[in-house]
Design goal:
It contains one helix and no strands. With 98 residues, it is mostly helical.
Amino acid sequence: MSTAVIVVIVIVVLVLVAVAIAIGRRVAARRRIERQRMAERAGAHRDEAQTRSAKASRLAEEEQAKRAEADEAAAKAERERERARMHGSKADEIEEDL
């Protein structure tokens, strides 16, 4: 009888080892799938960040160009204002001479 008990114990231990190995493989598979999913999400986030960075760079360049245009327009307006003032002064001089 003790031999039968030993055989049963050995079989139970082997079954428990097999179950533990199966559970370990499932856990490893779940972790691997979760890592892949997280890597895909991270990749998508990286792509979105690159897209937004490119858009920000493009908008910054556009803003810089518009600022340069505005500065040029302001300088031109100042030159025209000065010319108008000079013409007004000349017109006043001519009017006084008449």
